[in-house]
Amino acid sequence: MKANDEALRQGLRAYAARIAAAHTAAPASLVWLRAERRRRRMAVERAERPLRIMQGIGLLCAAAAASWLLVVSGMQRSMTGTPMLVLSIAVPILAVCGCWAMAAASRRGPA
After folding, report:
1. Which residue from 39, 42, 62, 64 could staple onto 99, CB 3.0 to 4.6 Å apart?
2. Whole-model pTM above 0.70?
3. Computed over its alpha carbons, how large is the radius of gyration of the chain?
């Protein structure tokens, strides 16, 4: 029984030595630097979460306002003509696109 234990022990030590030779651990400074970067990134994400929620709500409100503007401009028969039609379509589209562009730019982060 002790002979088997000794053979197993030597086999495991040889295996551990091969692994240690093939794979070296990263320097402690590199591990610390990566952990600090990750910690900062997580803190920024946590701080920006309410802003992202408000941007989503703002985008929904802009879409609702754009829809309302289209409905109201369609109901008013007195304001007819091509310029009013173009304005009543362009303003809601620009409002929604502007909100979407601001939300997309804030998700990308600084250049």
Report:
1. 62
2. no
3. 31
What is the token pair recorded at 64? 């609702």
Half-sphere exposure of 49 (CA within 13 A, CB side): 6
DSSP symbols for 20-75: HHH-PPPPHHHHHHHHHHHHHHHHHHHHHHHHHHHHHHHHHHHHHHHHHHHHHHHH
Distance CA 109, CA 111 (A): 6
Report the number of distinct structural domains present in the chain.
Answer: 1
In-domain check, residue 39: no
What is the distance between the alpha carbons of residues 92 and 100, in angstroms, rounded to a whole number?
A: 12
Q: Are 67 and 93 in contact (CB under 8 A)?
A: no
What is the extent of the structural domain holding 57?
50-108
Tens digit of pLDDT for each residue in 4-28? Answer: 888 899 999 999 989 888 888 788 9
Asked, for residue 7, whether it belongs to a domain, the answer is no
In a domain, 24, yes or no: no
